[in-house]
Amino acid sequence: METLAKTAMLLAAILLSFTAQCFHSVACSEIDMVSTVVSVYDGDTFTLATGDKVRLADINAPEMGETSSIEARDYLSSLVRQKTVYLDIDDMNRTDKYGRLVCVVYVDYNSTHYLNVNKALIDGGYAEIKDYPNEFDPRSFVLYLPKAIADHPGAASPLPEPVFVVTVAALVIGLLAAFLRRR
Ligand SMILES: [Ca+2]
Ligand SMILES: [Ca+2]
């Protein structure tokens, strides 16, 4: 009986951590705002048609005046200027200390995928990873994000539905409680 209870407890713990990961991955690929970019300041900052300034999350491009700063700015400009951008805004702080929206930025890549601009700057060697405290983990960035996942989190997710995982976890915990009561 004790072994069974231990097994059930272990199962419940695994399922709960898996559930947390599901919610995390869903939260990490949401589109919070759609706008157009009117100007690009440097390799990690631009201005939207709404007047809001955006700072790309968890990356660092050279400041203007530093080596390669023009190349980084021009590359970011080629990806976003006068284009529609899909912004995943940081749910933890929303803006940085300068009032800029902290975002993972997506642009249309093709009919099925967005391009992750933050990741494109890293992969192109124009910016480096700087993992600030926010909702994002730059190590989990993928270059091409399926639109189905970003627009309808969970619907086309390769992960099991969070509701299903929660139900199974609740069942396991219920069983565990029943075992403990009978001891
Ligand atoms: Ca967000
Ligand atoms: Ca981070």
Could you characterize the architecture of this molecule?
With 183 residues, this protein is an alpha+beta fold. It is built from five helices and nine strands. Strands 1-2-3-6-5 form a five-stranded mixed beta barrel. A two-stranded antiparallel sheet has the order 4-8. Strand 1 (33-42) and strand 2 form a beta hairpin. Helix 1 (2-27) runs antiparallel to helix 5 (162-182). The longest helix is centred in the first third of the chain and has 26 residues, at 2-27. The structure holds calcium ion (2 copies).
Topology diagram in text:
Elements: H1 2-27, E1 33-42, E2 45-48, E3 53-56, E4 59-60, H2 69-80, E5 84-89, E6 101-108, E7 113-116, H3 117-123, E8 128-129, E9 144-146, H4 147-151, H5 162-182
Parallel strand pairs: 3-6
Antiparallel strand pairs: 1-2, 1-5, 2-3, 4-8, 5-6, 6-7, 7-9
Helix pairs in contact: 1-5
Bound molecules: calcium ion (2 copies).
Largest sheet: 5 strands, mixed, barrel
H/E order of the elements?
A: HEEEEHEEEHEEHH
Query: Bound compounds, please?
Result: calcium ion
Number of E strands: 9
Low-confidence stretches: 155-159
End-to-end distance, in Å? 8 Å
* Order of neighbouring strands in the sheet with most strands: 1-2-3-6-5
Using only C-alpha atoms, the radius of gyration works out to 21 Å
Number of domains: 2
Q: Structural class of the helices, strands and pairings?
A: alpha+beta
Q: Which bin fits the share of residues in helices?
A: 25-40%
| CATH topology grouping of the largest domain | OB fold (Dihydrolipoamide Acetyltransferase, E2P)
The dominant shape is elongated
